[in-house]
Amino acid sequence: MPFVEDLTAFLADFGEAVTLNGVAGTAIFDADYAVANAGGGVASTAPVLQLRTADVPALPVGKGVVVRGVNYTIAEHQPDGTGWSLLLLERA
User: Fold this and answer.
1) Residue 36 in domain
2) Whole-angstrom distance, CA of residue 84 vs CA of residue 3
3) Is residue 79 part of a domain?
4) How many angstroms separate the CA atoms of 27 and 40, rounded?
5) Continuous segment of H or E residues that includes residue 9
6) Does any domain span residue 26?
7) Longest Cα pair distance anywhere in the chain, in angstroms?
8) pLDDT tens, residue by residue, 62-75
9) How far apart are CA 48 and CA 19, in angstroms?
10) Is 37 within a domain?
11) pLDDT (tens digit, 9 = 90+) per residue, 17-59?
12) 1, 18, 54, 62: which has the fewest Cβ within 10 Å?
């Protein structure tokens, strides 16, 4: 049975304004601190957008995103099959 939950309320509570490929929308932005253990460890942030898959443009990799006034490029699209997607971002 397909997942049919309406995610609009979730985005209303936790989402923020973003511009995705020139289109205004709402998504959840997360830029957690991350450490890659490559010898001594390398610290960075791992910016990710969480949003409805229906709001992701076709062929999203390489397209632009603006969040909190910062420009990003979509590095990877990870749909989860339930109508929700993660967009892994790189700072542009």
Assistant:
1) yes
2) 10
3) yes
4) 34
5) helix 8-14
6) yes
7) 47
8) 999 999 999 999 99
9) 14
10) yes
11) 999 999 999 999 998 766 666 566 666 668 999 999 999 999 9
12) 1
